[in-house]
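Regression report. Comparing outputs from two consecutive submissions.

Submission 1:
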Amino acid sequence: MNRSATPPNIRFQPRLSNQASRLAVLVLAAVLAGCAVGPDYKRPAVEVPADWRWKVAEPRDHVPRGDWWTVFEDERLNTLENIARTNNYNLQAAFYRFEQARAGARISRSELFPTLDGRADWTRYRTSGNSASPVPFPIPSFTQDSWTAALDLSYEVDLWGRVRRSFESARMEASSLQAAYESVLLALQADVAATYLAIQGADQELAILRQTIEVRKEALSAIELRFQAGLGTEFEVERTKVEVASAEAGLQLVLRRRAELINTLAVLCGLPPAEFEEQIADGVARLPRIAPDLPSSLLERRPDVAQAEREMAARNARIGVATAAFFPVVRLTGSGGYLSGDVSDLFKWDSRIWSIGPTVSLPLFAGGRNIAELDRTKFAYQESVALYRQQILEAFREVEDSLAATTLLEKQVAALQEAARAGRRSAEVSYARFTAGAVNFLEVVDSETVRLQAELAAVQGSTEQRLAVVRLIKAVGGGWEESL
């Protein structure tokens, strides 16, 4: 009795030991799964001007910018902005790049979970009657069917955080491309606004030139009549013709520039230039007032700054992926299903099959590839840090340039408008002196030339003033708080 009871006890003990070992392995794997090699991301310090109210930069490009172009109070501009956002192909391409990155992040995330594949196959095979036999007599050939229905399971135990770092990198890359999309959108909105305002400025120049040509043609007719009556000179006639032709040439130059602007606006709106119906509002868009003490926190919503910061985080995560290549890879695999030589017996209990077991892959020699890859990822991260800091400095420069432009252009435009008023008054006085016989017509021609140049310069300065506002709004990431 004692001898018959011993064998079951002897066989049973190892089974308990094996189960305990498996449990210990799983517990150890669970503990180690919380580890991830490689540095955790920390935003690097950035040197900024002392007179800016800068805090720790935290990208806020997700904050809605609103329809910032409405500050110009132009309904046609509002319509064109909506058309461009819907139809522009560069913006669509940026959106689909972002969607690709999102899908790539989901692919990386899927590696956190086991993969389960279904498999079913049928094989009919014939053995050779002359093949080598493990027994001392030949094995005759035979024909056999094999039916299989099974499930295959595979799971990488993420001991060192390779999969998690890969997902972190992919997720930040997707976030970076989202910021890139917002950057393309902001640039598009600014380009539409700037082009539209430039067309309005060209229309003002055209109005001045057309009026000038009309006045000069009337003057030419008068001079020709005076010449025919013997009161004028041929020189005065020819000089007046020069002024008329010069004004007409200037008109054609502005018309060509306006046509190019219309074509640019059509392409921005995603429409063929030949089919684009230009509907530019009469008059000039309102000139908004900009607070001169914009806080530096506004730069946090610049999408290009956010893009650089997220690309930096993605490259930091890749260091962890490269570091994990030095450690073993543990993968759990399993398979279960049914195998039978007859399809009618395939799903019977005796036809079941299964297998389970871990596999461990340990890198022993790779010719320095892993070390080189780790060095590459570290240098790539340092590159992204430098680019991020450079992007911050560029952002400050653009804002400072735009603030300087809006401030100085205000004074410049005021001076140009005063010059235009003086030019108009000078032309009126010269013409009155000419009709009174006090001076010859050359003085009138010179006064008209000065007046035209002054008025065109005033219009161009006013247009540039509005364009500077667009550049400033773009420099701070689109819009600003109303409290400013």
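Submission 2:
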Amino acid sequence: MSHKAGFVNIIGNPNVGKSTLMNAFVGERLSIITSKAQTTRHRILGIVNGEDFQVILSDTPGIIKPAYELQESMMGFVKSAFEDADVLIYMVEIGEKELKDEAFFNKITNAKIPVFLLLNKIDQSNQEQLEEQVQFWAEKVPNAELYPISALENFNVKEVFARIIELLPDSPPFYPKDQLTDKPERFFVNEAIREKILMHYKKEIPYSVEVETEEFFEDEKIIRIRSVIMVERDSQKGIVIGHKGAALKRVGVEARKELEKFFGKQIHIELYVKVNKNWRNNERQLKRFGYNR
């Protein structure tokens, strides 16, 4: 029996639902999802295995014009998505008219590999608007197979996935068949904590924060975790901790519940907050946090 395997890379503007689609394909919650832009900072692989196929999905940061070194690094992850893709998914949402970076758009329309244009969030539109959008994008990206979908409602997701498998090259698997992702456990701890910060803090705080898990000890029944929340200024430290530590406690409680579902074990988590001045523009710090360009 022949075996297919390949890389399917998902790109698009912020907030189009790339992470929701990735999780729907994988059947697990690998990518964090919030309503804020720039939720995804890294390139995250999700691996889906069948008897005769392996699909390696890649969720990348939303395409933006970088304002500081961290965002430059995030766009580096998007550029790398063009380099190893066997199938490229360009995701847009109802009402969207352009990609924020013209150079990326030219790469999509001139791609030599199969391109899917997924028009997401059609559950928020009517038939007339949907038809207008389908026509608009069919003219704008003529080299793409176009599918209206709702990643949130799982509409047309299975059909797209089946078509992806048809287009994959014949190849042995790239990863062990029981592997779900390329990221270590600590990465998902960091992301679960960061998701709760994105949900509960306003203005600049979520974008000034990085999380580092210093300890991860797993026993048969419990995982003990110690993580540090890095902020850029002393004033932000006080906001993250909150009055009598209430805000930080809420983050810890919600992250613990999320991680207990993810790992299927009891979690004990300790959170600390430290000031790491101007880390978003510090190349050495960015490298330490995995933002290598």
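Expected: both submissions complete independently.
Actual: both completed, but the second showed a warning that disappeared on reload.
Relevant detail on submission 2: The chain has two domains: 4-167, 185-288.
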